[in-house]
Structures are given as structure tokens and as C-alpha cells.
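Intended use. Records like the one below are meant for learning the mapping from a protein sequence to its folded structure. Do not use them to infer anything beyond what is encoded.
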Amino acid sequence: MSRTRSVASSALGVNRRTVLAATAAVSVSAGVGYALRPTDSQAATADATTAAAEAPVAHSRVAPAAPLAPYTKGTTLATVATPRTSSGYRRLGDGAGWKRVVRADLAAAKSGRAGRRTALASFVQFTDLHLADTQHPLRLEYFRSTAVNTWRPQEALTVQGGISLVERVNALRGAPVTGSPLHFVMTTGDNTDNNAKSELEWFMKTMSGGRFTPNTGDPRHYEGVQNSGLKLYWQPDSALRDGDKQLGFPHLHGFLAAAIREVRSPGLNLPWYSTVGNHDALPLGCYGSHGDTYLTELAVGGKKLMSVSASEAKKLRDSIRQVKDPKGVGYADFLKAHARSMRSVTPDENRAPYTQAEYLKAHLDPAYQGLGPVGHGYSSANVDAGTQYYAFRIADDVIGISLDTTDAGGHYEGSIGATQLRWLDKTLRDNKDSYAVIFSHHTSKTMDNTRPDPAHPSERRYDGSAVVALLGSHPNVLAWVNGHIHRNVITPHSAPDGRSFWEISTASHVDHPQLARVIELVDNKDGTLSVFTTLIESAAPHRTDFSDLTQTGLAALYRELSYNAPGSSTVLGGDAKDRNTELILKKG
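Structure written out for the chain above:
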């Protein structure tokens, strides 16, 4: 492939658009990602000139100036939240950073490459924010009676934690390795937790900026499992000796009132793009899109089930895992059978599930544009066609492709339809002179659900191995970036003819260790490319003060609670080879 549009800047080369963006010599559209102009409802082709003309007007927020040299401050290279005690409820503090690991699984690392590098692109990945309306009547908190890790003590603070992650990105001084300006932020799905309109509003304002109150139902006080008096859940405001307090969790008077107070998000000072996940597309992340009207009625109604026996919880959980009830009909029957056990809550129409069209239109709403782009990747063509995949131009030599791997029929694992797979193949062929980064929610191994889509029953669905094979057939694919598994895992993929790419799966921001990832693409000018990955935490301090229930104090507590959550696993952070890395590739 011909790569002619780059120049050197001192010892470290950077892409032409990166140079111009850093010196403010071009419009805001340059270097931040052009949407590939849709030609019909199923395909997109590059039209950079037109897309640049349609780019959003510059916003008043501007990214901080990039440094002249690599840096570690604000990343996990410098420090990572680490327990200060060895037993009981473990308080966190500043710990040693994670070193960068060079991985030569797919190509040899050649000496001297640091002095030859040319930056191609850099961006930030958010994934699995799970911004949760914890008072929503359709939640499965009672699964905790059979599996302790299915309910999280930190869930009431997802919004404060998400905003703190936005604040961290806004404070970054460009890309940590190359020092080039960051192009954009991409979310790789499960932005919301329960397909609720309330959660969608909170997500859009967290990303694009604004004031909002993360509360539904009664505006005066919290109504959910954490003030239920049930020992199954942490009761922070109560002196009740619940199961979590027996493990050392604190009594924090005023916690729930603070959790539902108004918050302010500054919004990202970068453009951002969006990829859909199963919790965005499906109620509870597992039931077919609004398949049972009773579930919708219960979502907005005044009754909430908070406890069932362990045996009943296990039976329902097994039915979800074994895909016995994809449309939620059995779940509705289960709730009806427990109607007398439900507790009263304040009804709220904002808890209604949102449709695919409403999800897309929210992204296209000017009120949520932030620094753009318009639609955050989605377009009116997506609305018209009922699709949630698209392509966009990241830089002169790099395109991004966002896939929809969710199962509209109902299940938390994914797959991809034949029409989208053909579109992916065509998009890669049409842009063969550009490197490509693929984004999806599901990983290759969790795309193992190939049941037909009810909306397209005759269309074949393909699993992750088919996607790996397709991507491996295109020499311009560098990386497949995804989430879903709430764990840091980086996997090399190689084809028999030597073509290769890296699959980069990043941990969630709801479970420990609550991370996002900076990804940088560079040309080493020696026949190889490098993909650098650098993990970041939120901007909240590692140490907590139980008396600090401010927005920042709650974000810090969010991290500490996630570390101590019963059933939380330290393996989610991954091994050193899955965290801060340099991933070597041969040039196609």
C-alpha cells in the first residue's frame, strides 16, 4: 500500500493532519475523523472533501496543547489505584504504575524504531460504562442471592464515575507515546445498563456536557434496593448490619441523597463516536427488543421486585444464560407470579425502554452534539435503514468502522448478519489504501450466538470466527477494538499468508479496575507498524474520604467500592501483556 501523506517533525514523525491540528492551522474537521458519506442504506464510501464541509462548527472547548515528548502523568504508566491494607474492606491509595510491554507475537521489534516513528492516529476507547438507573423496576438485583457478583454495591455511582472518566480524558496532553493530539473518543457499547430512556439521557449528557439529575421516580429521595432494609444489599445510610457491612463496608449517612443529586459533566473536549452494545439495544441486555408489553408497563409503573429465593433466582438466571426465553415472555410470567412480593415505588415514564430509532435520534439531536461529529457516527441513513453500523475517516491514512454485533432477538452474546458482513468486506475493499481499525461491542469469542434475527429471519448470522477470517483477508486491518467481557485481553490474529491484526479488548468502567484505553497507531518506517495501548483511570483521587460526598468524592468512592465488591476479580485487569503495550505488526 502507498503511504505518501506524512512528514517528519523533529525526531518523531507525525501525520500531516496531526501537525496542522496541533498548530491550529486547519478547521476542526481536520484530523478528528470524517464520516464516510453514505451512498445508500447499506454501504458507505469515502468522500473526505464533502464530509469536511459538513463537519460541525468548532466548540468553545479545546484540547490542551500536546507535549513535545512522551509522558506518563495521568496514565497507569505512572500510578494505579492499589490497596493500602491487606484484609477486610481495603482502602485504596497510589500504587506503582504498570510498565509497557513490547509484544512481538506477529512481527519482530526492530531497533531504532523510536527515532523513526510517524504517528498515524490516536484515540481513546471507553467501554461498558453501564450508566445505570438503579431504581428501575426491571432490574435483576435479586440474582445476588444465587451469585454474589451479579449486584454491585457501587452501581448507584456510575454517572459520577463516568463523568470523572471524561475529566481524565480532558486533562490528557495528547497521546502518551507520540505526543500527537488525540483524534476522538469511541465508546464500544453498553453505554447504558438497562435500555432505559433515563439512562440514555444521562449517557448523552455525560459525553457531550450538561447538568442533570441521575434520579427517577420520587424526586425527593432514593427508592431502590439500597434503602430496602434487606440484608442482601449494602444499606449505606442505615445502621443495619447487612452482609456487606459484615465484610467491612462503611455506614455512610447521606450517601443515597448524594448519589441522586444534580451533577455536572464538562463534556468531552474531543469529538466522540458511539458503538452499540447489548445493554443499549435490549432490556436487561438480554431480552428481545420490547417483546413483551407487560415488561414495558412494569418499567414505567409503581412496583419493583427486590428479593426472591436463591433457587428461584438461579432458575431465572439459568434460563437467560441458556437462551430459553429470548423475548422475555417467561420473565414476564415470573414477575406476575411475584406481584404480591413487589414493593411500591414512584412510577416514571422516563424509565421506558428506548427503541433503536430513538437511540439513533438521540445521537443526532443537536442538544447532544458536544464537539461532534453530527450523529456521533450515525446518520439519518441509519435511521431510515434501521442499521447501527457505519464507517468514518480518522485521518488521511486511517478509517474507522463501527459494527453492530447485538442480537435483536434477545441474548447477551452477539453475531453479525450477512448484509453487514458484506458491507464490512466492501468498505475495507473500497478503502484498501487506508489502514482500518474495527470497533464493536462483542469480542470474537463472544460472537457465538447465530440465531436468526426476527426482523430478518432468512438472513444468515455469522460468528466471531467468520469476522476474524474476513478481517484477516484484508492487509489494511490493524486492530479490532471491543469490550463486553469487562476484562483486558489483547489477542494476536494471523492468517496463513502472514496477514495479521490485533484484537484489543478493554475492561469495563463499572467493574474493577474501571479503565479506559488510549490507542496510538504509528508507522515505524522499517516495514513494521506499532499499535500502542495505554490504560487510564478516572480523574478521581485514589484515596477516599468517607465524609466527602461531593461529585468528585463519590467518583473516588465508586472505584474503591468496585475493588471491594464481593465476587470482584482482580484478573479483570489482565496480565501485563494485556495492559500497557506496544503491539508490532508487519506492514501489509
